[in-house]
Amino acid sequence: MIRRPRAAITGWPVAHSRSPLVHGHWLKKYGLAGDYIRLPVAPEDAERFYRHFGESGLVGCNVTVPHKETAAAACDELDEAARAMGAVNTLWLDGDGRLCGANTDGIGFLGNLDQRAPGWDARPGPAVVLGAGGAARAVVWALRARGFAPVKIFNRTTEKASQLADHFGFGVEAYPWDKLCEHLGQAALLVNTTAAGMTGKPPLQIDLDGLPKDALVTDIIYTPLETDLLRQAAARGNRTVDGLGMLLHQAAPGFERWFGVRPEVDDELRRIVLADLGATT
Ligand code: ATR
């Protein structure tokens, strides 16, 4: 008997994850037999869970905070992005039962910009990244993979920006937050990866005056969909891309691994997730 493939979002907590909505939509759209469930994994159980993933009954899973590093350490194989980041968000078992891990957050970031701002990387000049957390790590990896240099990281806590820049080395630089104005003038791209500007968090206070009008501005926040940063940037004529597509695109490679179909990120999926965000935030 062929088992119905089952995948999951794992992390702690997972109650608010939109991944079941995204994968559930694709399973229905492509008429596939399979399930995608929420599976909370308590921090004290995480190491054991990922090390013995074969016993879970899952064909694979997504991994969210705070387990991305623990899961990476449990993998037998990592893709290039996961190796560079030391963190995974997507796991699957290969034919021999070996645990494989990928980090598709950076791919999701690129897929979103490719779809919504075609040609955005034609001039891979200086990029400014705000923030130095896990999301920044994926964005910096993605920008370096597309040839952007220098990638300049600005963070409220400069030390964390320096650590991230050191981690990547060549082509990545760290600066204190208060030096941002001096660097915006050369930027081809501005990315916010901080939590500032998210619903319920303090606003991102930033003066875009020096930013070239042809620079692309993007935020990885998607609640609200149009952050103050994006509104401000659009008002002065900059091209902008919201963060929802990163969430949708990062999900696609896992779906393909587990269920065998490369899913499309289309307007219908965007509408479904937006409606859910509107109902719950
Ligand atoms: P994630 O993994 O989602 O990136 P994180 O690791 O908690 O989350 O990182 C959050 C980022 O948002 C950090 O860069 C944080 O700056 P600090 O390193 O100084 O804490 C940044 N951040 C959060 N709130 C901020 C605010 N009000 N202004 C500027 N930066 C902020």
TrEMBL record:
What pathway does this protein act in? Metabolic intermediate biosynthesis; chorismate biosynthesis; chorismate from D-erythrose 4-phosphate and phosphoenolpyruvate: step 4/7
Question: Which top EC class is given?
Answer: oxidoreductase
Q: Does the keyword Secreted apply?
A: no
Active-site positions, per UniProt?
K68 (proton acceptor)
Listed under catalytic activity are: shikimate + NADP(+) = 3-dehydroshikimate + NADPH + H(+)
Q: Which residues form the SDH C-terminal domain?
A: 243-266
- List ligand-binding residues for shikimate: S17, R18, S19, T64, N89, D105, Y222, Q250
- Domain annotation Shikimate dehydrogenase substrate binding N-terminal: ranges: 9-91
List UniProt keywords, sorted A-Z. Answer: Amino-acid biosynthesis, Aromatic amino acid biosynthesis, NADP, Oxidoreductase
User: InterPro entries, per this entry?
Assistant: Aminoacid_DH-like_N_sf, NAD(P)-bd_dom_sf, SDH_C, Shikimate_DH, Shikimate_DH-bd_N, Shikimate_DH_fam, Shikm_DH/Glu-tRNA_Rdtase
GO annotations of cellular component type? cytosol
Domain named Quinate/shikimate 5-dehydrogenase/glutamyl-tRNA reductase: which ranges? 127-196
Task: Cite the GO molecular-function annotations of the record.
Answer: NADP binding; shikimate 3-dehydrogenase (NADP+) activity
Q: What domain of life does the native source organism fall in? A: Bacteria
Q: Name the Pfam families on file.
A: SDH_C, Shikimate_DH, Shikimate_dh_N
EC numbers, comma separated? 1.1.1.25
Biological role stated in the UniProt entry: Involved in the biosynthesis of the chorismate, which leads to the biosynthesis of aromatic amino acids. Catalyzes the reversible NADPH linked reduction of 3-dehydroshikimate (DHSA) to yield shikimate (SA).
Relate the assembly described in the record.
Answer: Homodimer.
Which NCBIfam families does the UniProt entry name for this protein? Answer: aroE (TIGR00507), PRK00258.1-4 (NF001312)
Q: Which family does it belong to?
A: Belongs to the shikimate dehydrogenase family.
Instruction: From the Swiss-Prot or TrEMBL record, give the protein name.
Output: Shikimate dehydrogenase (NADP(+))
Species of the source? Polymorphum gilvum (strain LMG 25793 / CGMCC 1.9160 / SL003B-26A1)
Tell me the gene name. Answer: aroE
